[in-house]
Hints:
Residues 8-216 form the Endonuclease/exonuclease/phosphatase domain. InterPro entries: Endo/exonu/phosph_ase_sf, Endo/exonuclease/phosphatase. By secondary structure, the protein is α+β, with helices and mostly antiparallel strands. Among the domains are: 73-244, Deoxyribonuclease I, Chain A (4-Layer Sandwich), CATH 3.60.10; 278-336, no CATH class; 346-445, no CATH class; 484-513, no CATH class; 550-601, no CATH class. It is built from 16 helices and 20 strands. The strands form seven sheets. It has a six-stranded mixed sheet.
Amino acid sequence: MIDSNIHCLLLTETHLKDPKNIPTIRLKATSFKYIQNNKNITFYIIHNPSPTQSASGVSFIISSLLYQRIQKIEHIPGRLIHITFFFKRHEQLHVLGIYLPPITSSKNNTETLKSINLYLKTHLNSKNQYKKNIIMGDFNINPHKPNTTLTTNDTEDNSDGHVTLAFYHKKFLTTLRHHTYKDIVKIYNETPSYTFKNTSNHTSYIDIIFVSPNLISHTICASVVDAPIHTDHRLILVALNHKFFNPSNINFITNTPDSIELNRKNSLAHNERYNYKKITKAQWVDFKNFVWDNFLLRSNRNPTPNNPQKYVNITFEYIVQSIQSAINAIGFPIIKHNHHQYEMSYKIRILENDQHYITRLIRSLNRYFTPQTSNIYISMNFWNGHKKLNRLKRICSNIDPLSLELTAANFIWSPYLTSSHYEASLKILLKIKNYIDAQLQEETSNFQRNKIEKFINRRDNDLRSNQKRMLTSILDRVPEKIKLDRLVFKDDTDTLTFTTDKDEIESIAIDHYSNIGKVDKSPLAYDPSIPLREEWSSVYEPISGIPDDAQKRLNDLITLEELQSAIKDLPTSKAAGPNKISYEIIKQLPLQLLNVLLSLFN
């Protein structure tokens, strides 16, 4: 697991027994440590032994950081472990490890198979938009063979008490198919290899990883490989995109540059951008080295897919991940921008800040002078080294004391506030707060009124001088929804008819809005039977004089010099796309990575 960077490993048919293991007893994890590069690496193993049978049992081995994300563990003794991981942004990853009994022993395990199917059905039927599922294990049935789903001929119990062969296994697969779960290895490999070989060298495909539809986009690759231990089953792997997890894709097992990202966030917020002016030359050099090292690490870790399109997708994803990892490792400086910062006038923003300051000051005084504290005086720390006091003096300098029925002496503040004049000081602060509230309300009202008058006048002016902006403003509205639960229309006999049938209303509405504004007969309508008018004939004549090598030049491969020239001409200070990779970053990519991009383009 350390060498292959595996963070969650399922083991089935562990042959462990424990008569005390019942569904109501919570499974406990056992920790064990390894030392690599003078560092302790901790894993946790969760055993689910069978109470009665030795030829069963399932276990999970989990890395330390994933273990910290565990929210709940549920199980069916000896057959199923369900681990729920919680991540930030409400993301939930449910991993179910299952070992279904062989079909030949279904009769002896009827109750176990029933409980597994019921558990699966209940779990999948629960609605949760944040829930993503991985269901993996040894299912002892090939889901891609014919007749692996239930039919009308399959029965659970007939008159003789007979259970149709593989009924519960088929029911299990049918439930997964009804919820559109996919074999992830089959998605990345059109003809996946076998997963099991018996002593007679007969092979089969019975070990599978199913994923929910909302998790497929987060996967990078999946494959079947030989396990590094002696076993009759092979190892099935699936890799998830680092964007699914928060924090970012941290390599918390191996000692690689990724470990620097441990405490860094994954991506920029919507109001943040990188401050390229403050990035030093040394940081750009480190960035180039980190990017290439990260790319090599990711590309060497996973096998290369045979499908060309999948190869392009995975390679590009590695490039994006490597760039993000390098940025997070180096720690590019960030600028935060508040889009709503300057919506109000400067005077209103000053009043809002003063209002917030006075409110907090009053709250602090009320909290300090209480019967519980009985403080005699407030130390100078209350004014934060006179900073608060200086700000209070600045606020008072803009207020006429007579307007508050006060004198100039009331605005003289001492560095020390004693309990003797606490009440008088509090009353003055309350009057100042009421004054600021009134000023803020008046300024906000005037600002809003002036803003409304401005747009009304602009709309009037646009009606005469700028109709384009007027129409854009009018059309820039959220469309109103109409409810069509009843409809009066003309039928084929041109008779007014009333209907409340949903399907009929939908059909008529689609036909109406598809043909609204349509003109069946018009001299301007196109008629393919009529030849083009004479004045248009020359426009549609084939172009002559095209050079013979024009098509050849279009088929020529892009050279590295052309790519570098195009990147050099890219504009700066432009908004980045969804992956937050701007042109400034692309211009700093190392030459090795440009060659990889060039291979994708060609």
